[in-house]
Amino acid sequence: MKDIQMVDLSTQYLKIKPAIDDAINSVFQSSTFIGGVEVESFSSELASYLNTTHVIPCANGTDALQIALMALDLKSGDEVITPSFTYIATTEVIALLGLTPVFVEVDPSTFCISPEAIENAITSRTKAIVPVHLFGQAADLNAIMSIANKHNLFVIEDNAQAIGSDFHLNDGSVQKTGTLGHIGCTSFFPSKNLGCYGDGGALYTNDAKLAKKIKMIANHGQEKKYVHDIVGCNSRLDAIQAAILRIKLRQLDNYIDARRAVAAAYDNAFAQIPGVEIPFRNVYSKHVFHQYTLKLTLYDRAALQAHLKDAGIPTMIYYPIAAHRQNMFSHFKLNDINLPISDELCSQVLSLPIHTELDEEQLSYIIENFKSFFK
Q: By CB neighbour count within 10 A (0-12 exposed, 13-18 middle, 19+ buried), where does 10 fall?
């Protein structure tokens, strides 16, 4: 049996090696390493897949979030509501821009931001909401967009872990996550469901004015070369990564199906173990399982991790410390914030290997060794 990994990018690459190698070689032959046909084509193809009007590639997912906030013309001290149970990139860019992060609670089942908590946190200084579609599960955008429209707030979707997920709106229509808010942001970090072989990210929007501004911000604040109208940054997806992503985008739905198959096998094996909660599926979207994350309510997580490690099975904790507990935000005086669900999740969650290349032998081995801990 092959060694088990959290993500097996090597085996995935071998299955698409001829196409990937040809794509990379074509970039070398053209010697257009920044911009050019590959970046433009990927932008167009991703826009078509998402059924959105504008896709603006950038250097990474964190840049995407920063650029999105910069495009909204927010002022120092403006408040941005965001979950505390998330990767730090979602929240650090808020503070980086001199804005005030307002950390709120998540739903204990979906792990995504609670609409009720959003509503309760809104003040006269609130300007935006950044919901995170965590682990491949969509936040409740029906409720969130309703709240945003009611209070005239911007919504930036952190879609880094849920690209490809279908969301069912109250009117019966279906849209891809990341395309319902004012701006969607994603990461193409290699381990993502749609990942490149380096760093990369993108923003998407149906608003032409926002798209124009986002493009300018990502390109030193210029629309015309050497004419800089606004303060921007330098954030771009290189042509090699774009060429790789064009190949992998064609496989994205197949990759999602493979992840869902692994998740279904885990569900069937673990659903009846007391004190082990399998991932929840909400009714308004399709989980794409960037991570398969269990909640352990009765057991010693460290002991289970050690048991699996002894068997050669890796695990991960996403995330061991909530954002509002991080030292980087200490100047916001968050000691009085009470987010018991987020804190509890940090002590209970455990993610198992899930990727497109897990074979039946590996999957059975993981399940057998996981279940043996509880005997």
A: exposed
Token pair of 59, please? 């250097």
- 187 phi, psi to nearest 5 deg: -120, 145
Give backbone dihedrals phi and psi of 300, rounded to 5 degrees, phi first: -80, 110
Kindly calculate the radius of gyration of the chain based on its CA atoms and give it in whole angstroms.
21
Contact 218, 58 (CB under 8 A): yes
Sign of the dihedral through C-alpha 234, 238, 244, 246: positive
9-249 and 252-372 agree in CATH topology = no
* Chain segment 146-198, per-residue pLDDT in tens: 999 999 999 999 999 999 999 999 999 999 999 999 999 999 999 999 999 99
Q: Residue 172, by phi and psi: left (phi above 0), alpha (psi -120 to 50) or beta? A: left
Q: How confident is the model at residue 334 (pLDDT cuts 50, 70, 90)?
A: confident
- CATH of span 252-372: 3.90.1150.10
Omega of the bond leading into 319 within 30 degrees of 0 (cis): yes
Query: CB-based contacts of 308: which residues, under 8 Å, 6+ apart?
Result: 314, 315, 366, 369, 370, 373
Instruction: Work out the number of other CB atoms within 10 angstroms of the CB of residue 327.
Output: 7
**Whole-angstrom distance, CA of residue 363 vs CA of residue 8:** 13
pTM of the model: 0.97
And the tokens for 306?
């050690």
Rounded to 5 degrees, φ, ψ at 82 are: -155, 155
Residue closest to 6 by CA, chosen among 360, 373, 350? 350
Cα–Cα distance between 228 and 103 in angstroms, integer? Answer: 35
The architecture of the domain spanning 9-249 is 3-Layer(aba) Sandwich (3.40)
Map out the domains of the chain as residue ranges: 9-249, 252-372
Q: How many CB atoms lie within 10 A of CB 306?
A: 13
**Tokens encoding 371:** 């279940």
| Pair of tokens at residue 280 | 């929840």
**Per residue in 82-91, pLDDT tens?**
999 999 999 9
